[in-house]
Amino acid sequence: MELIIDDIDPSEDLFFASISNDECQEMILKCSFYRDEQEELYGDQVSKTHIVGYFDQIESVEAWGENGFPMTPPKELIDEACKQLTGLELEIETISHKVNTSPQYYDLV
Q1: Is 56 helix (H, G, I), strand (E, B) or coil?
Q2: Which of 20, 22, 23, 81 has the fewest beta carbons under 10 Å from its own?
Q3: What is the pTM of this model?
Q4: Residue 108 has pLDDT above 70, yes or no
């Protein structure tokens, strides 16, 4: 089973993932995420702030069988998708900050 992140909608804190395997032709998961910030440092100055999203929960599931008709996906397949999504880190945005790279700055600190 291969999990692919198809689209990220930061305005609604949602992302879409798709799965295809032997049991169903395709399964689309609509998932929510929560945000966090990670700072990148240049010395003692923050040079970038990364806004990242972490998987929260599956909001809805749509699945299609080999014949192309909608189907109810097996619970085991959804559970496996949850395991793969746990710990997933989505890069939402990166904000660059001005840093003082002059040697004089470090003489003052």
Answers
A1: strand
A2: 22
A3: 0.78
A4: no
